[in-house]
Amino acid sequence: MEPRTDDRRWTAVRSSAPALVLPSGWQVGPDGTARAALRCAGTRGGSARVTASAKAPDVAGAAGVAFTLDVSVVPYPREG
Q1: Residues 6 or more apart from 34 whose CB is under 8 A from it?
Q2: CA distance 50 to 31
Q3: What is the distance between the alpha carbons of residues 53 and 26, in angstroms, rounded to a whole number?
Q4: Is the dihedral of CA 62, 65, 69, 72 positive or negative?
Q5: Looking at the DSSP assignment, which residues form a beta bridge with residue 13?
Q6: Sign of CA dihedral 65, 67, 68, 73
Q7: Lower CB count within 10 Å: N or C terminus of the chain?
Q8: What is the reported pTM?
Q9: For 45-61, what is each residue's pLDDT tens digit?
Q10: Which residues, in sequence order, are bridge partners of residue 25?
């Protein structure tokens, strides 16, 4: 994700269904660019919502959702 233009910074990424889509890596670069690696289940199907939150570093309180990705997972076909 690109750096934010406001004073907020990317803080975390979460999945609504970690059994289907698991955030396996999260990194915020020195320039403010954030990268998230997602792993999807191969044997289950369903949908999940992945959210990334952001907040200003000098403001107390919880970070708010700033990015949402809806993911549909289709299981691998089985043979036989």
Answers
A1: 1, 10, 13, 26, 27, 28, 52
A2: 23
A3: 12
A4: positive
A5: 52
A6: negative
A7: C
A8: 0.81
A9: 899 999 999 998 777 77
A10: 37
